Amino acid sequence: MLVTLIKGDGIGPEVVASMKKVLKAVDSKVDFEEINAGASVFEKEGVYIPDRLYKSIEKNKLAIKGPITTPIGHGFRSINVELRKKYDLFANIRPIKAPGPLDLKFDGVDFVIFRENTEDLYAGIENRVSSDIALSIKIISKEKSQRIARAAFEYAKRNGRKKVTVVTKANIMKESDGLFLASVREVAKAYPDLIFEEILVDNCAMQMVVNPRKFDVIVTENLYGDILSDLGAGLVGGLGLMPGLNKGKDMAIYESIHGSAPDIAGKDLANPTAMILTACLLLEDCGMTDKAKLIRKAIYKTLKDKNNYTRDLGGNNTCSKFTETLIKNLGD
Ligand code: ATP
What pLDDT, on the 0 to 100 scale, is given for residue 71? Predict the structure, then answer.
């Protein structure tokens, strides 16, 4: 199976190299078509995303990417946002669950965030009204809100989840968030077997740090989803552990939550777990659940020993040593 691979920049190349080694070690049957994007490509070719990358994604329909630093200026908001918009990858799915026995404030946190990926303040409709006043427009449509809601409810139904929580600020943004909420409510009616709950985003943030086990599947708008998933990541061990994906109708791009982490790039300090778990999501979606299970078991075992912790987890292990140990643990 051919998958487009974008190694990205910052810690991207390091965590991608680790992920590739692990997939090879389990003989995953995934072959990569490697094409990069970002600042290094811009320097040579004058574009951030080369045409051959678009062509490859369109052909393979599946891509996995490392983080790419957001260019400042040059007309692009972000390469990630650009790819999500171009291919209408409307669902950003982020499972929030600790992949190993870590010392956490809460055990048993296990929820999944479905973040609408194409609208909201990320639509990029902004202007400077005067030198002292700027305007950003928030767009919410019934169609796109119901599309993400259906994805969340269908996921809940298929994966034995019990509850879907919609997160908005509909008490204040009565039109935009009001429409999102009304649209999700309508979809919820078709799933009477699932508990449907509504919560305001400020209360949701508080509940997440007080009683996170109450959440099961969350469906929300673009900006709230972005913030809540970082909050969620913090609950279960941090950004170095959190996978994610962007799904459209017949295409998906798998990417971890974390950014390119320029502060630790090139130093062999990154935690590759997020990237490896992101690959597990790809394997699972492609029917290779046995391989993903093997990898998840090895990650669990690796995280059992604090000597294996990378710096983000409070240890001083390197990315490459962590990977070596994880691969050894695959055999046990
Ligand atoms: P972006 O805007 O692209 O999301 P960011 O600056 O908000 O990026 P990250 O690049 O994800 O955030 O980094 C936030 C912090 O988390 C940094 O201190 C970084 O070193 C750390 N971090 C992120 N990912 C990892 C990782 N895989 N391993 C170790 N530390 C990480």
Answer: 74
Provide the 3-class DSSP secondary structure of residue 69.
Answer: coil
Q: Does the pLDDT value for residue 104 go beyond 70?
A: yes
Is pTM, for the whole model, over 0.90?
A: yes
Q: Which two tokens stand for residue 319?
A: 């990315």
Which of these, 43, 41, 44, lies nearest to 53 by C-alpha position? Answer: 41
Q: Where are the alpha helices (DSSP H) in the chain?
A: 12-25, 39-45, 51-60, 79-86, 142-158, 176-188, 201-210, 222-235, 273-285, 289-304, 319-330
Q: For the chain, give the number of residues.
A: 332
What does the alpha-carbon distance between residue 268 and residue 280 come to, in Å, rounded to a whole number?
22
State which amino acid sits at residue 20.
K
- The pLDDT mean for the chain works out to 95
The protein residue with its alpha carbon nearest to ligand 1, atom 31, reads 240
Q: Measured in angstroms, how far is the CA atom of residue 164 from the centroid of ligand 1?
A: 29
Q: Are 208 and 218 spatial neighbours (Cβ–Cβ below 8 Å)?
A: no
Q: What is the separation of C-alpha 211 from the centre of its chain, rounded to a whole number of angstroms?
A: 22
Q: Is 261 in the pocket of ligand 1 (CB under 6 A)?
A: yes
Atom 20 (ligand 1): residue with closest C-alpha?
Answer: 261
Residue to probe by mutation, ligand 1, list 258, 276, 319, most atoms within 8 Å of CB: 258
In degrees, rounded to 5, the angle at the alpha carbon of residue 116 between the alpha carbons of residues 238 and 203 is: 60
- What's residue 200's pLDDT? 98
Give the residue carrying structure tokens 């979606």. 285
- Which amino acid, 81? V
